[in-house]
Amino acid sequence: MPAIVLVGAQWGDEGKGKATDLLGSSVDYVVKFNGGNNAGHTVVIEKDGKREKYALHLLPSGILSPNCTPVIGNGVVIDLSVLFEELDGLQARGIDTSKLLVSANAHVIPSYNRTIDKVTERFLGKRRIGTTGRGIGPTYADKMNRVGIRIQDLYDEGILRQKVEAALELKNQILAKVYNTRGSEVDEVVEELLSYAGRLAPMVADTSLELSRALDRGDTVLFEAGQATLLDVDHGTYPYVTSSNAVAAGACTGSGVPPTRIDSVIAILKAYTTRVGEGPFPTELHDDMGEFLRKTGAEFGVTTGRPRRCGWLDTVIGRYATRINGVTDFVITKLDILTGLEKVPVCVAYDVDGVRHDEMPVNQTDFHHAKPIYEELPGWWEDISRCRTFEDLPANAQAYVLRVEELIGARVSAIGVGPGRDEIIERFPLKPAVAG
Ligand code: GDP
Ligand code: IMO
Ligand code: MG
Predict the structure, then answer these.
(1) Cα dist from 325 to 9, 233, 262, 330, whole Å
(2) On the CB side of 401, how many CA atoms lie within 13 Å of its CA?
(3) Gene3D superfamilies from the xrefs (predicted)?
(4) How far is CA 198 from the centre of its chain?
(5) φ and ψ of 204, to 5 deg
(6) What pLDDT is stored for residue 434 in this prediction?
(7) Among 68, 284, 318, 353, which is least packed, fewest CB within 10 Å?
(8) pLDDT value at residue 304
């Protein structure tokens, strides 16, 4: 013990990578349990007096902490070409990646699922989801449909061939007859997958057993979610979601560690809101203020480079995240981006066709109609990037955090005041005390 889950509270890109990196030096394992290379985490590290930026997609952010063992759990979908590209990139920059463990039960993203992701989006036209085009949805669909390919299949060529054949039988027909696109050759797919098997072999493990033993030994394990609460396939703004469970509960199914072993849940909440791709977004700004947040916050996707849609903080979503994830601690990130505003609007409830909603409407149509009800909090002008204690913050910034804390219903334990590793205020310890 302890086991800590770290999740995104909004639509992703809250700064989970930076928060994981912050905890990385004091945890023994960091586990990615959902999603794949649709994620994009930026971590900024000070090295020899210079700022170095790392963009991670598939690897857990804990890989940047020398003493931490990074784990890719069974709930992840793996594009093997991206895995090795990322490992090579880190090794070239002097990062030790030799401890990485990969679950034998994780699914691989075969090349045909990237094709299907892209052609499906084109086919949907105006109804598209705005996916990252990485083959995530089709690979999770295959998993549920029981025609997926797992990491362990790479070590039994006969089984691998059978599975690829079974998957392509239907998919090639759909690609040709519905989408008018060339299908894939079984041999090519099998060969490509087998080409990774040798290099991957030493990393493949029963990661559920490894983590269970680690917790028995008293090691600290951090589970790092990709995506976020409102992109969760069950609890998000379906169908404008990703195809995995990004909420805290996903840490258990996606790693094989049971709920009774989880001690705390940290949610990362950006001081305003962003979203990439399509779907409802009540506090979205289409004016100069939206542009201000995008520019000042550098809100462009790490994975696809798309400009992120921007809007004010929505505490209805924050409260929802608290409830769905069982949040024990919040980290508010990017408070520095709100510096210099006369008033900072915070959404406290919605008006849905004339009716006030204090909680997330259960009906998706209502959420599409939701108009934010704002409370305007007084702003601050001082540069806060050098603040390291809560008391260092200007009075109005403190008041903003305290009001948000009250609205979201869980304590704010840390506050991000800049992208750098040390640009954070640690108000309360994020790691639970070890019992006994
Ligand atoms: P993730 O997907 O949740 O890991 O988040 P991303 O890396 O996609 O996006 C968060 C961005 O905000 C990154 O560029 C971080 O370097 C940056 N960031 C994180 N925390 C802070 C903060 O407190 N202040 C500022 N200015 N930037 C931050
Ligand atoms: P991190 O981990 C923001 C969005 C896509 C699209 C939807 C479905 O960096 O927070 P997918 O390719 O997953 O099928 O796309 O989900 N999306 C993200 N948005 N941050 C992410 O990851 C995302 N991963 C997926 O833009 O709307
Ligand atoms: Mg991101």
Answers:
(1) 9, 14, 12, 11
(2) 25
(3) Adenylosuccinate Synthetase, subunit A, domain 1, Adenylosuccinate Synthetase, subunit A, domain 2, Adenylosuccinate Synthetase, subunit A, domain 3
(4) 29
(5) -75, 130
(6) 55
(7) 353
(8) 81
C-alpha–C-alpha distance, residues 82 and 88, integer Å = 10
Largest CA distance in the chain: 67
Share of the chain above pLDDT 70, in %: 99
The protein residue with its alpha carbon nearest to ligand 1, atom 16, reads 419
Which tokens in the block code for residue 241?
A: 């979601």
Q: pLDDT tens digits for 185-230?
A: 999 999 999 999 999 999 999 999 999 999 999 999 999 999 999 9
Pick the catalytic residue from 13, 79, 153, 232: 13
Interacting residues of 122 by C-beta distance below 8 A, sequence separation 6+: 128
Burial of 356: CB neighbours in 10 Å, binned 0-12, 13-18, 19+: exposed
* Residue 40 annotated as part of some ligand binding site: yes
- Nearest residue to 55 (alpha-carbon basis) of 40, 34, 77, 35: 40
pLDDT in tens, 315-335: 999 999 999 999 999 999 999
- Given 32, 41, 235, 270, which residue is catalytic? 41
3-class SS letters over 61-125: HHHHCCCCEEEECCCCEECHHHHHHHHHHHHHCCCCCCCCEEECCCEECCHHHHHHHHHHHHHHH
The residue whose CA has the least distance to atom 10 of ligand 2 is: 12
Kindly state the percentage of the chain with pLDDT values over 90.
Answer: 92
- For residue 280 and ligand 2, the question of a CB distance below 6 A is answered with no
- Work out the pLDDT band at 160, boundaries 50, 70, 90: very high
Q: Concatenated DSSP letters for 291-316?
A: HHHHHHTT-B-TTT-PBPEEE-EEHH
User: Would you tell me how many other CB atoms lie within 10 Å of the CB of residue 111?
Assistant: 15
The pLDDT, as a whole number, for residue 1 is: 54
- pLDDT, tens only, 383-415: 999 999 999 999 999 999 999 999 999 999 999
Q: Which tens digit of pLDDT belongs to each residue from 250-269? A: 999 999 999 999 999 999 99
**Rounded distance, CA 315 to CA 137, Å?**
29
Count of other CB atoms within 10 angstroms of residue 217: 9
What does residue 307 show for φ and ψ, rounded to 5 degrees? -65, 135
Whether the CB-CB separation of 87 and 100 falls below 8 Å is answered with yes
Residue 27 near residue 68, CB atoms below 8 Å: yes
Structure tokens at 333: 């990130």
Q: What is the pLDDT of residue 436?
A: 41
143 is catalytic: yes
Tokens representing residue 215 in the block: 């917790």
